[in-house]
Amino acid sequence: MTFDLFADAEPDRMWCEQLCTGAVVLRRFALAHEAAILTALDGITGAAPLRHMITPGGFRMSVAMTNCGRYGWVTDRTGYRYDTTDPASGKPWPGMPEVFLALAQAAASSAGFDGFTPDACLINRYEPGTRLSLHQDRNERDFDAPIVSVSLGIPAVFQFGGARREDKPMRVPLTHGDVVVWGGPARLRYHGVLPLKEATHPLVGHHRINLTFRKAA
DNA sequence: CAGTACCG
DNA sequence: GACG
Question: In what residue span(s) does the Fe2OG dioxygenase domain sit (predicted)?
Fold first, then answer.
């Protein structure tokens, strides 16, 4: 699958918003392939079920997570890390579907980051009331590659802050099909998701799914 | 501190 | 009770 299948599929329904140097929102970017994405997602969660991981502080995360790709992001009492195996099964994470890879590469290119080769996709499932507090993505080996974040399902408010936790984050409403890309000077910016409100999406149901693509190694 | 609790 |  190529860039054309995404960026050129329905250009009149897509637009781009710049958040700062190195960060953009690609509105409705994933919409054209929502069915293929959701089908692939079912395959992944069937093999590597969503689960609530434990933070190093011993707290259960409200957001349920799983992974696909060579590396998966995991957390437990010993800390955050990338692992090639699912600690719940001992098996490798499900492979990254072609449609995921094509989506991530097309979004990165559209945002000005050519040659993005993600080897990790963290999948987050948010129920109403769940949240992800402000954090940095900093467990990757190098920070040259951008982060590509795909929103599916019910709306959420994304927080996008600065290089320091104290920097007041901007609030960015995200809906089904929106893709946020940040890299370069924005790569280590703090970000998070405010508690979700009750809502229903006709295809996804009463929750939000987020796909976060990274180059872990 | 990828968390919750508490308080104004 | 929602919000910061």
Answer: 117-217
